[in-house]
UniProtKB/TrEMBL annotation:
It comes from the Bacteria. Belongs to the MscS (TC 1.A.23) family. This is Small-conductance mechanosensitive channel. GO terms for molecular function: mechanosensitive monoatomic ion channel activity. It is a multi-pass membrane protein.
Length: 287
């Protein structure tokens, strides 16, 4: 039993001895690697703070220059991610990874990712075009690909809209560029389009006069380019008038609702009937 104990302990003692010798011989190397790893972590930590500070400073500077909020957020994202990649390369080079190799690997990976994520790259390219051509800015009310809402921000890959009922809609930038864009806020004035139907027995000249006076009494309606009131169609159950006043863009919906109600009340007061869809049936007696 004593001999077996000695046989078991001998390999263990030898292993510990070899480990101790290896640590003694390579202590400088281990210390160097440890310092490099700690340095790399510090570079990542401090670099991330610096990157955020620089990107934030750029955003503040652009805001001071009264640049559009959507454009500022787009540039802020590009600056932040670009600087972080530089910090990451610096951290890897600190632990002994060759920078040229890292760049080559990033290039190869970028090519592979680019082929796999062509949609994302097209969204990025479309975001650059949106920022460059600026078909809309932050706060504009737009319609893009059948979605209507106020522009909240233009990000690297998507545009964020807020609908009138306070829902967030994320539209890929490629879809924004690839579809018609209707910007309701670009111009200072907008035209309201009403279609008012009256009965065939109504006095058309009187109807036109009543509608025009009703609109002229609203101070929010612009004098120029003028108010259009005219017969546009002889429909099945009514004579349709087109009513087109001009207003300031920010007052569009308020005036839209108010004028529609005011016209109805004015026509009722004058005894001018607004008919509902109906069909007249004539019976002829045959002997």
């Amino acid at each position: 039993m004593a001999n077996e104990s000695v046989d078991i302990e001998t390999p263990l003692v030898d292993s510990l001895s070899h480990a101790e010798k290896w640590l003694t011989n390579n202590s400088d190397l281990l210390v160097q690697y440890g310092v490099n790893i700690i340095s790399a972590l510090l570079i990542l930590f401090i670099g991330n703070i610096v990157v955020k500070a620089i990107a934030g400073s750029v955003a503040k500077l652009l805001h001071k220059k009264k640049m559009d909020k959507a454009v500022v957020e787009f540039i802020h994202g590009i600056v932040r991610y670009t600087l972080f990649v530089i910090v990451l390369i610096a951290a890897l080079s600190r632990i002994g990874v060759q920078t040229a190799s890292v760049v080559a690997v990033i290039g190869a990976a970028g090519l592979a990712i680019g082929l796999a994520l062509q949609g994302s790259l097209s969204n990025f390219a479309a975001g650059v075009l949106i920022v460059g051509f600026r078909p809309f800015k932050s706060g504009d009310y737009v319609e893009i690909g059948g979605v209507a809402g106020s522009v909240d921000s233009i990000q690297i890959f998507q545009t964020i809209l807020t609908t009138p009922d306070n829902k967030m809609v994320v539209v890929p930038n490629a879809s924004v560029i690839g579809s018609p864009i209707t910007n309701y806020s670009r111009h200072a004035t907008r035209r309201i389009d009403h279609v008012i139907g009256v009965s065939y027995g109504a006095d058309l000249k009187k109807t036109q006069e009543v509608i025009r006076k009703t609109l002229e009494a609203d101070e929010r309606i612009l004098k120029e380019p003028g108010i259009t009131v005219g017969v546009v169609a002889l429909a099945d159950s009514s004579v349709n008038f087109v009513v087109r006043p001009w207003v300031r863009t920010e007052q569009y919906w308020d005036v839209y609702f108010d004028t529609l109600q005011a016209i109805k009340e004015a026509l009722d007061a004058e005894g001018i009937e607004i008919p509902f869809p109906q069909m007249d049936v004539h019976l002829n007696k045959v002997d």
